[in-house]
Amino acid sequence: MAARRPWSVSPLRLLASVVVEVGRILLARCAALCAASTLAGVPFFARPSVAAALVDEDIAVQVFQDVSPSVVSIAVLRSVGGVQVRDVIGSGVVWDAAGPHVLTNFHIIPPLQGTNTVLEVTLQDMATGAYSILPARVAGSDSLHDLAVLKLLLPQQQPQPQSEEVLGSQLSVARDPASSDGVSNGVSNANGVPVVVAPIRVAAPGDLRVGQLVYALGCVAANPAAAAPTRSLSVGLISGLGRSIPSPVGARIYGVVQCVRVPSPLSSRGSRGKLHSTEAVVNAANSGGPLVDSAGRMVGLSTAVGAAQTGTARGSGVNFALPVDLLLDVVPKIIVYGNPYGKK
C-alpha cells in the first residue's frame, strides 16, 4: 500500500481564501454602516456633499440678482398736519417697457380709483443701477382678481382718446411683454434723465407643478426717506394648484409680518381664475410682488395674504398667487381698455 502524502495548502489557494474572507468582512461592515445611516434618516450613499448643498443657495442668489431690477416699491403721498408723508403701500413688478406698466394688487389702490392721485414707483435703472422715483397712475384694474396695472409717466402726460383700430394694435403688443425688453420709452426721472426699465421675464402658461421650487420677491422701504428700497426674497414650494379664496373687492388688506394658513378650499364666487397655493413667505408690504421659478421667470403674482385667527392666533404660512396663465389673458386687456372685459 502506497504511503499517504502529507496534506498541504498551496500559496495561491491560501491567498485566495484570505482575499475572500477580507472581502466578506468589508461587505458586512459596509452593510452595517448603510443600515445605521438609513435608520438615522440619511441614506449612506445619498449623503450630499458640501458642494451639492450650495447649489440651491447659488440659484437663490442668482434669482434674486436677476429679478430684483424688475421689482418695484409703490407709495402714495398723503398730507398729515400740512406735511407730505410718503407711505409705502406695496410692491409691484415691471410688466413691459411699452408703457411702461407695473402690475400690483388691486386691494392697495381702491381709495385712489376715480381720482387724479398720482402714485410714486421706486425702481432701479436697468442701465445704471441707480434708483429713481417715478410718478404713476392707475391704468386699469380687475378687482375680482385683486389685480391692478399702473402706468409710469411724466407729470405732464395725460391719457389720450384712441380709436378701436389703435386699441386693437396695442392689445397685440400688450400680449407680448418681452417684446420691448429694456426700452426706456421716454420715461425720465425727476432730473429728466431717461430711465431704462427691466420688464420681468414670463414663464410659459401651464408650466407649474406641485412641488416646484418658487421664489417670492418684494420691494419695501424700511426707511421711507431712503433712496433705495429694501428688497426681500423667500423660497418655497408650490403646494397646490386650482385653489380659490374670496375676492378682496372693496377691502384693503394691509401688509402683514407673518402669513398664516388660509382654510382651503375657499370659495371665490364668480372668479374666472384659479389661484396657486405656495409656501413661500411674503413679508410685510410685499403684496403685488412676483412669484418666480428657478430660472427667474414669473409664474404668478402674489395676490392674497389672509389670517386664520385661532384661540392662540397661530397658523402656518400659506400664500396665494395668480397664475401666469391668467395674467397673460387679463393684463393686456387692462392695459388697452382699462378693464379685463376687452371693451371701453
From TrEMBL:
One of its GO terms (biological process) is proteolysis. SUPFAM superfamilies: Trypsin-like serine proteases. GO terms for molecular function: peptidase activity. Keywords: Hydrolase, Protease. It holds the Pfam family Trypsin_2. InterPro entries: Chloro_Bact_Ser_Proteases, Peptidase_S1_PA, Peptidase_S1_PA_chymotrypsin. Belongs to the peptidase S1C family. This is Trypsin family. The gene is deg5.
